[in-house]
């Protein structure tokens, strides 16, 4: 085990090696300057001279039967080139990431407000919008199903002490929204004694509202019809190849004729894993023979992508008097909304990791994903783990209170470590420093108490809105720790492809890295450059545009790209390096065991050999393409949930310090501290950025971010009322990055992006509870929850 | 959509008279949002930003005459001493970008119950100067708000300026939002103590169909201050007086439940804000005497 390195307050010098731009350095982003200057071209900036604009007509109803659609008035609008409905979809009319259940354009039924019904292409976006408003859709409006448990016919919980955590009867199921019923997935974890007893038992019910990814660059793309009858799509997305597969199926075209290139992506967080305008723009382009641009505005974006699953959860924890966990029972309900999207995998995470990073001998978890007529929910950073962490960490605090024990002590006592078994029977075979993460947080100094000296309103709950000068303000401190699987799980063939080329350009050895891995703002392009620099000993590394002319890189999600695409780039570089070394040995005329690439040359440490790559390669181009896989995972047992489900875990912990105006219910988060084990920080600055961003997003869910839905309709589809944290809401951070290598991963690295998003919110919630003394079982916490009004 | 860009006030008024449907645009921070969302599709925009006369403020007859084109940023930096309540309200508005563009006149014309200038103007007893080719009139702020997002202006009128008398006593402004900056108010409260007139001014935001005062609270407090000689003695305010004032402010509200907050919370928050604002204002009033 390597010694951990530490970074204080977001300044990662301690992690940084000599600044050659290789692995471990704070290498500069290739797109950084353009982005800071506002010169970077995002999907919404795509432009062609003769392009048309496509718009989508969406259902105003959460649930309705379509009796008829009359497009004649829209088609007759001057400037309109095409109006399409589901009749115009040439291939499969439904698509989906895991289950193909979502219509490209509504068939006979719409199942959520905002479901796409028809498309218009016109020479001006305003014309297209006006024409779309002229499409007459005759709806037979139906009563929507808007609650996951109601959809499944499960009784609602109204009494915390009714001890039926297990729900089996499906007697009062609502009308089926899909032919197979309303259950998308039911995951069971069963281990140990099925009827355990314990000295101390705490039961709690928790609720997490629907969070939006709130990426700043709404969905956009440009489809260009090609001469071969195919289409080229430039699109801001997270996973080019899964898009390609679904587009091909809808268009009835082979992959050679559907070519995708990544457009500039303004954030993703899971919200671009599903298709949005992809097939629509292609359909319009193929119909009109013209390039078609589609670009959502903010309001449409709220209807154009999946959200984080809202969850209702009931937990029962049993422990000995001295604080050893005996059992956990949990029933977890995810509202998947109208279509499956990635609900099965979200249920997979929620269920398998639903009790947190603790060792518990007896576990009984039921995790459900249901169809309702709410907006479809799918991937979002933290993916099924964010919701359960609020519940299991709240339970740990409740248990600590019941036992009269310190909450950190209780957690450390039951913390997983290397060699522990998870509830799914998986033995953790790499470092799992759960207790250390918490202890390090505890050891950090606490921020000064508020109200010391002159009042600066910006430090007060409410900020310059001047609601308190200290009146009613109470401080609270809360801790939370979480873990999350990295990469795809449960037996998924999770691979990436990298093509690496080495050649001499203008006298300088130059590597080109070509992958289809989407850069969504996280900095993978930098990581690709760093790995090639380290592996090939060259300075100049070009990142080829991301497209489907190279094999799949898998999704930019599940904290996996640095691991999996990084692994692929590393392996492809190694193969190129083998070729280079072989050439060098041919040149030297013998085998030299320690030849390596550095400073643009092949060198040996034991002998005085330096062969510049420029000389060695001449005009030759060395290129290698390979597919790379992490070690396989396996499907879990459907009855017990047992199995080697996850390839790697990421661990992080947070301490939140909050000031709460207890009379007005307003919260100021004073400081967030985070400890995270990243195995190896490939780019320390980017690691710290991920921790800061993940923390902010978790804080947002704890105190403000929620898509409010009433009767299946979204009430706040804009940034006017869907609030995300500002600089006055997100406090300064203390960050300690640990580097305990995972021996199974390239460079020992661990995926970074999601873990801090999971532990941050529960820590904030715990701190608010500590400040107010209230149970607070729902997030986001609203002022009303604190004031009781 | 067409665009008119008068450079003199007379031209602006003529344009408005000729095209009563033209939508004036000042900072554009309401108008552009309306255009983006498609809620507003005017045939004609009337850009007032080129009219130099609107951009200034001056003190005339003891009152600040705030030109319709003066931004919140300037209210904060240039008028913090003369119009403290309005400056405090301005500080809570949007972000630096919004405060650089947005104007009090724009807030008035929109007349949203959540507009932050209103409670401060109500508490201060402002007057709105409006003009048309027919002439100029001053509308007392109490008569300005006529309904949800409606005001007392006629179709051919434009706002020229707002008149606010600099206070003889302390002012406060508080606003509840569910984040610590850049947020629309869930409830807001403005308070002005007028020792010269022995009067109290209040303003409530986001808690009724229009911004409104809390007259019973004003009369109660002014009465208490008078009868106990507190204006002069500047003694501590009895807790019961502060509490009663809070109750009366809350009682003046008629809020609804919406995405931003519940009616019950708004009522509760108003009583808390009113109590705190009075406590702070009274402390200022008391310390003013020590300085004097
Ligand atoms: C991100 C954001 C945050 C915001 N935050 C807040 C906030 O915290 N608090 C708040 O109160 N508001 C807020 N607003 C709303 C807006 O900034 C204010 O209402 C502002 O005062 C509008 O002023 P303006 O000059 O930009 O008006 P404009 O948008 O130019 O116009 C607003 C209205 O006034 C009319 N108008 C403008 N000038 C005149 C005139 N001289 N005579 C007659 N009619 C006129 C226009 O026709 C229009 O109806 C926010 C807006 C945005 C976009």
Write a brief structural summary:
The complex is a heterodimer of chains A (789) and B (292). Chain A has 789 residues and is α+β, with helices and mostly antiparallel strands.
Write the layout of secondary structure elements.
The complex is a heterodimer of chains A (789) and B (292).
Chain A: H1 32-37, E1 52-58, E2 64-70, H2 72-75, E3 80-84, E4 94-95, E5 102-103, E6 109-110, E7 116-122, H3 125-133, E8 136-141, H4 148-152, E9 183-191, E10 200-208, E11 220-225, E12 231-235, H5 240-251, E13 258-262, H6 278-288, E14 292-295, H7 298-304, E15 311-319, E16 325-335, H8 343-352, E17 362-370, H9 385-403, H10 407-413, H11 434-443, E18 473-486, E19 495-505, E20 508-514, H12 524-536, E21 540-543, H13 561-588, E22 595-598, E23 601-604, E24 610-612, H14 613-617, E25 622-629, E26 648-661, E27 666-677, H15 684-703, E28 709-710, E29 713-714, E30 733-738, H16 755-772, E31 778-779, H17 783-787
Parallel strand pairs in A: 1-14, 10-31, 12-13, 16-17, 20-21, 27-30
Antiparallel strand pairs in A: 1-7, 2-6, 2-8, 3-7, 4-5, 9-17, 10-15, 11-12, 11-14, 15-16, 18-26, 19-20, 19-25, 22-23, 23-24, 26-27, 28-29
Chain B: E1 2-4, H1 9-18, E2 23-25, H2 31-37, E3 44-47, E4 57-60, E5 63-67, H3 72-79, H4 84-91, H5 96-101, H6 104-110, H7 117-124, E6 127-132, E7 135-140, E8 145-147, E9 150-151, E10 158-164, E11 171-176, E12 187-194, E13 199-205, H8 215-227, H9 230-233, H10 239-251, H11 263-291
Helix pairs in contact in B: 3-4, 4-7, 8-10, 10-11
